[in-house]
Amino acid sequence: MIEALVRQTLPADLDPSGPQARQWVADELATDGYHDGRPLLGRILEWLGEKFLELSGGGGSVDGQGAPPILVAVVAALAIVALALLLSRVRTERRTVTDSESVLGDLSLTPTQFRDRGAAALRERRWDDAVIDYTRAVAREAADRTLLTEAPSLTAHEVGAQLAVVFPGHATETARAMDTFDRVRYGRYAATEDDARAAGALDDTLRKARPVLTSTADSSRSSAVGTSGGPG
Question: Do residues 178 and 167 make contact, with C-beta atoms less than 8 angstroms apart?
Fold first, then answer.
């Protein structure tokens, strides 16, 4: 289809191949004439300004008269309100997404309750739920042992970064479990039985492990909150 359209617009002595025709189209669409690099808010404000100019008589109306000033004021006020509501909604949605990325959030279950939920999910072959609840058991257990800083707001990667400091011998499997949690909860990844059992095994291992508690470890654990990054 693209090749046929290109050939119809070219001189008769030009006969590009299919791949060449597609490349010519892609090169043309990549030029600045097809793109507006301005921010969306800037384009909206410019459009509103043009409409206000038309309403006020500056846009070259047929009878040379603009809309009544009161109408212009009402339309301007409505546009400003609508824009403010739109921006506030975008900020709220972004804040909701950010809050939802934490492992624990406002969940107030105990480690045992998370662990029991994980075990039930495992028995019922709900691998996704088992991964999520066992990982939350890991985070809650560590928080109760004061091994995590700012536990309720931590993402999975931040939990993993802090636990790697106090459980250096289990850093690899901890990081793997946190990645699995992220992929299951946010990446539409379907957990396997092995994933679920690995999460349960990590919970059991860290619950019995002795943490490395030194002043250096405490300092590194605190700094990990701001440096680990990533989705939670």
Answer: no
Residue type for 133, please? D
Handedness of CA 16, 18, 23, 24 (dihedral sign): positive
| 171-to-26, 167, 222 alpha-carbon distances in Å | 46, 6, 16
The Cβ of residue 18 has, within 10 Å, a number of other Cβ atoms equal to 11
Structure-derived torsion over alpha carbons of residues 212, 218, 220, 222, reported in degrees to the nearest 10: 130
Largest CA distance in the chain: 85
Q: Whose structure tokens read 């290109």?
A: 6
Question: What is the rounded distance in angstroms from the CA atom of residue 195 to the CA atom of residue 227?
Answer: 27
What are the tens digits of pLDDT across the range 58-77? 544 445 555 566 666 666 66
How far, in Å, CA of 129 to CA of 64, rounded? 68
Q: What is the identity of the amino acid at 182?
A: D
C-alpha span between 216 and 157 (Å, rounded): 20
Residues near 143 by Cβ (< 8 Å), separated by ≥ 6?
104, 151, 152
The residue ranges of every structural domain in the chain are 2-34, 40-100, 111-226
- pLDDT tens digits, 108-119: 889 999 999 999
Block residue for tokens 């700094």: 223
